[in-house]
Design brief:
The complex is a heterodimer. By secondary structure, chain A is mainly α. Chain A contains 8 helices and no strands. Chain A has one domain: MetI-like fold.
């Protein structure tokens, strides 16, 4: 049995999917990544600076979030915060879930900084907060940025899971359109191509960035 | 003024009285089970240049690192201008000082490292002005003017905008010296500052340090294998072995006619 490909259906579904992509998938990924990148840094610094018992609790909480599925967390927040709209919940879920991965990337970046940098900061009497801001974070960020980019791409591909709380991003739109017009193949193919068109150049860009950022 | 100052030096340490610049009192340093310093006592006067020599593992670098608060003091006390650095004696008990108090005393000390440790995310000028602006509260203009002056002094007046990675090891180390001097330290610690350099770059760094020694009254503690340099700039040489001072003399005596056989042996090996 061959695949029936109808160019007219493909052309019909394209603008619809593109709109869902821009207004949902892209917005979710950008906002989610920004939240995750900021929170991840907070976790990574907190894990090093908080007193040991507190940082152990934090590490455990981050492990729990990292080791449970994203759709489950989406459901959980959806039923806990019934008053929030689904996009807000989606931002929080993506942001918090991926912040736990990004925290690990930051941790590796921070650990890659030579001990001498900390010692020079101490020798200059820089306060802890200034040492983080002016010396450690800028260098760690450089080392971490490519890895953060990869997590953002992973997040991008996870956005369809948010259908569980009713966020109709592109893949859901493709399914709905396919169901209504019986053109699943066209709809999913176009959706896949849009994903690829967005994530492949980003991945290439990240690899280039990685090379350029090395000291 | 707080009265946390048992040894009578001025609390701000700026215009110090009669207290010695540095006092090590019964200093003990252990790394795990390894005892590096076991009850070390010595005093450095204001403006004195003291070179520490001895085989590796004899505790010289540890002394500098304890003064810079890069290592935790296992036992005993260190005083700077009469002010306790990391621990103080209060009612007969050894008490750790608050970070704020440690910072206040530490500010009088600067250090130049073997590996330079410039901040690679900043250019040369930013490396030098970072601490004067954010620790001493100087204005950006003031800090930059002083930084450019110091760069002239170390022979790098044209490198203010350069990136550390664009500089040779010798140039990086001269920037590191300028960076330490920008904080107007009363004490400068030099930890094997030429050991990571290619031989042809050693001279330019030592030249800069000779000038600093000549033109300032900064107290210096020097760990080096450059015996010629040590002889020229220091007033006193301490020979260390297994964490103890086994001999102490003026440089011309120490390098030409040491008393201890262990010192003679060591000097023969390095000279």
């Amino acid at each position: 049995m061959g695949i029936n490909w109808d160019w007219q259906d493909a052309a019909g579904v394209f603008p619809l999917l593109l709109e869902a992509f821009v207004t949902k998938t892209l917005v979710l990924t950008v906002v989610g990544s920004l939240i995750a990148a900021a929170l991840g840094l907070v976790w990574a610094v907190a894990l090093r600076e908080l007193p040991t018992p507190v940082s152990k609790v934090l590490a455990w909480v981050l492990d729990v979030i990292r080791m449970t599925p994203l759709p489950l967390q989406a459901f959980f927040l959806y039923y806990v915060f019934v008053q929030l709209d689904v996009m807000t919940i989606a931002f929080i879920v993506l942001g918090v879930h991926y912040s736990t991965y990004m925290a690990e990337s930051y941790r590796a970046g921070i650990e890659s900084i030579r001990k001498g940098q900390w010692e020079a900061a101490t020798a200059l009497s820089l306060p802890k907060s200034r040492t983080w801001r002016a010396v450690i974070v800028p260098q760690a960020l450089r080392a971490t940025l490519p890895s953060l980019g990869n997590w953002a791409i992973a997040m991008f591909k996870d956005t369809p899971f948010l259908i569980v709380i009713g966020v109709a991003e592109m893949v859901t739109s493709a399914r709905e359109y396919g169901g209504e017009n019986f053109t699943y193949v066209e709809a999913f193919t176009i959706a896949g191509l849009i994903f690829l068109a967005a994530s492949y150049p980003t991945a290439v860009l990240m690899r280039r960035l990685e090379k350029r950022l090395a000291y | 003024m707080p009265t946390d100052n048992p040894t009578g030096g001025p609390a701000d340490g700026s215009t110090s009285g009669d207290a010695p610049r540095i006092v090590f009192q019964d200093v003990v340093k252990k790394f795990g089970d390894t005892v590096v310093l076991n009850g070390l006592n010595f005093t450095v006067a204001k403006g004195e240049r003291v070179t520490l020599i001895g085989p590796s593992g004899s505790g010289k670098t540890t002394i500098l690192r304890l003064l810079m608060t890069l290592e935790h003091l296992t036992g005993g006390y260190i005083y700077v201008d009469g002010d306790p650095l990391t621990f103080e004696e209060r009612n007969g008990k050894r008490v750790e000082r608050k970070p704020k108090d440690v910072a206040r005393v530490r500010r009088r000390i600067g250090m130049v490292f073997q590996q330079f440790n410039l901040f690679p995310n900043m250019n040369v000028l930013e490396n030098i002005t970072e601490a004067p602006i954010h620790v001493l509260g100087r204005s950006k203009d003031e800090a930059e003017a002083r930084a450019r002056e110091l760069l002239e002094q170390v022979g790098l007046g044209d490198k203010a905008d350069a990136h550390p990675t664009q500089l040779s090891g010798g140039q990086q180390q001269r920037v590191a010296i300028a960076r330490a001097l920008a904080m107007d330290p009363e004490i400068l610690l030099l930890d094997e500052v030429t050991s990571a350099l290619d031989p042809e770059l050693v001279g330019e760094v030592l030249g800069v340090l000779r000038e600093v020694a000549k033109n300032t009254d900064i107290t210096m503690l020097i760990v080096t294998h450059e015996m010629q340099f040590a002889q020229e700039v220091s007033n006193r040489v301490l020979m260390f072995d297994h964490g103890r001072i086994i001999e102490e003399a003026a440089p011309d005596v120490m390098f030409s006619n040491p008393t201890e056989p262990r010192t003679r042996e060591f000097l023969q090996a390095v000279l």
